[in-house]
Amino acid sequence: MLNNSWIEVNLDKVIDNLNQVKEFVGHTKVLGVVKANAYGLGAVETALVLEKADTDMLGVTTLWEGIQLREAGIALPILVFAPLLEEQMERAIQEDLTITISCFEHVFQLGSAANYVGKAVNVHLKVETGMGRTGISPKEVANVVEKITAHDNLTLEGIYTHFPKAIAKRTTEKQYELFNNTVENVRKLGYEQLWAHCCNSAATLLYPEMHMDMVRVGTLLYGQYPSGAPNTIDIKDPWSAKAKIIYLRRMPKGTGIGYGHEYVTKRDTYIGIIPLGFTDGFGLMPLTRAKSLTDLAKMLLKTILGYFGWSESQLKVHAGDYSYPVVGRIGMQLTMIDLGDKPDINVGDEVSIFLRRTMADNQLERRYSFKGSNVTSHSLNTS
Ligand SMILES: *Cc1c(COP(=O)(O)O)cnc(C)c1O
To answer: Alpha-carbon distance 166 to 203, whole Å?
Structure first.
């Protein structure tokens, strides 16, 4: 193998997770969210298997993500969540993408782009019910729908909203009520068949009564339980990051290890090297703010303990039954691990690594398996 660090993606588990979701939601449609490179798993490969497994629709954030799926041969309907700029609309129509209308201007812009291309386009209306990001205010929805109806080339297929904190029951119920009333009004304008949707993964598990016509799930497909949601369905993790030990050397007590000598060996020990670093996303965390004083105190305490070298390394790698701490500062592409005095591990051996999927660099090789065999986007597309 040419690469000594990679990610194994088990696409069978993604499909198992999809089937769990399908069973849980019954007749409700399922939109598989494959934005952000399918949360790191690989958008094309994931979309290809989701298509084979009869997902109803795919969701992406940007036009560019939608184009990449079309170029890979994906024929499923694809909803683009984010607002498009006027100059992007013709291309989006040519690619047969389903477009989100988030304001009045979008109706006129998209309507004239559709006339210019000479093709009808499916649209979903985004309603702002409390996310504080994008969408039409419920009061304006009827007006916007009227304008859409007047355009022969705009087909209103769906209507949706998004929850900023699904675990907050009261807030979400209020949002849902507002959305549901808005949907009822639009149905009365002659759109009985409209697909209404509001649930992400957390809301799908928490509020079955809010599933409506379709749910939009990402997190659950990729094997993680949204925090605060019940584990009512049994999902599995398709993701595992691996690397091989490429070097191993005994270091005497008192040796400074790596940049800044942030770690100094406390005893004679073997230090191993894996070819993975911060450029691969290793050791990176999303930026978070303390939400309470207790949070803040905990974060400060960790920082203080770390400064004095009192806290255990947060990151470990695993090999068989053993785990070994990452030591020193993680480099751009190399990381050191402390293997101890008599390591039961050699150059060339594999270790498992914790690598946050949405932080994993897209350059890092993904190795896919599906129906028990190794696959590529090419083999998935031709089978
Ligand atoms: C990302 C996203 C989702 C999926 O969220 P999960 O919590 O990962 O299921 C659903 N809808 C929209 C609009 C999104 O941007």
So the answer is: 5
Distance 103 CA to ligand 1 centre (A): 20
SS3 53: coil
Q: Does residue 189 form part of some domain? A: yes
Q: Any catalytic annotation for residue 270?
A: no
Q: What are phi and psi of 88, to 5 degrees?
A: -95, -10
Task: Tell whether the model's pLDDT for residue 267 goes beyond 90.
Answer: yes
Residues with CB under 6 A from ligand 1: 33, 35, 81, 162, 200-202, 216-219, 226
| Pairwise CA distance, residues 249 & 273, whole Å | 9
Q: 34, 46, 100, 216: which to mutate for ligand 1, most atoms within 8 A of CB?
A: 216
Q: What local confidence, expressed as pLDDT, does residue 7 receive?
A: 98
Can you say how many angstroms the Cα of residue 233 is from the centroid of all Cα atoms in its chain? 19
Tell me the average pLDDT of the chain.
95
Question: How many distinct structural domains can be found in the chain?
Answer: 2
The answer on 294 and 165 residing in a single domain is no
Measured in degrees and rounded to the nearest 5, phi and psi for residue 326 equal -75, 135
pLDDT of residue 311: 65
From CA 105, how far away is CA 89, in angstroms rounded?
12
198 with 261, same domain: the answer is no
114-123, 204-213, 293-302: which has the minimum mean pLDDT?
293-302
CA of 201, closest atom in ligand 1:
9
Q: How confident is the model at residue 274 (pLDDT cuts 50, 70, 90)?
A: very high
**259 noted as active-site residue:** yes
pTM score, whole prediction: 0.93
Q: Are 139 and 54 members of one domain?
A: yes
Residue 108 tokens, joined: 């006129």
Q: What is the CA radius of gyration of the chain?
A: 24
What pLDDT is stored for residue 219 in this prediction?
Answer: 97
Taking a C-beta distance cutoff of 8 angstroms, is the pair 336, 261 a contact?
no
CA dihedral angle for residue 241, residue 247, residue 249, residue 255, rounded to 10 degrees = -70
Give pLDDT tens digits for 31-69. 999 999 999 999 999 999 999 999 999 999 999 999 999
